[in-house]
Specification:
globular, seven-stranded mixed sheet, four-stranded antiparallel sheet, about 50% strand
Length: about 130
């Protein structure tokens, strides 16, 4: 059974940085798309950033472009989300998610959902 375990969340002041990590286990897919979603209180879950293992193609939602960077270490089955210049509106539970359905690439996966999910890590940005 695929397991995704997030770490790195916490409390940070506005303008600060955090790096989230997601370690995937029992992950035997040759190619996959993996990324980060978030859900703020009272809001729907949204895809933040995703990356394709096959070609490194990435997707970012508009609100994080230029501030967040997704990267992956395929040998370690780990994906990272470097979050800089954090804003209070970035406060949310951040979930790692993955799929082996590659049609549509990272954009489609990030905007239409994934098949495997972690339990989430809370990021709180204070003003």
């Amino acid at each position: 059974e695929v397991q995704l375990v997030e770490s790195g969340g916490g409390l940070v002041q506005a303008g600060g940085s955090l790096r989230l990590s997601c370690a995937a286990s029992e992950f035997d897919f040759d190619d996959y798309i993996i990324g980060w979603f978030r859900q703020a209180p009272g809001k729907e879950r949204e895809g933040v950033s995703c990356i394709s293992s096959s070609d490194g193609n990435t997707y970012y939602t508009d609100s994080v472009k230029g501030r967040f960077t997704i990267s992956s270490d395929n040998a370690k089955n780990t994906v990272y989300l470097q979050m800089n210049t954090l804003k209070p509106e970035d406060t949310a539970v951040y979930y790692c998610a993955a799929t082996d359905r590659l049609s549509g690439g990272s954009y489609h996966a990030c905007t239409h959902g994934m098949d495997y999910w972690g339990k989430g890590t809370l990021v709180t940005v204070s003003s």
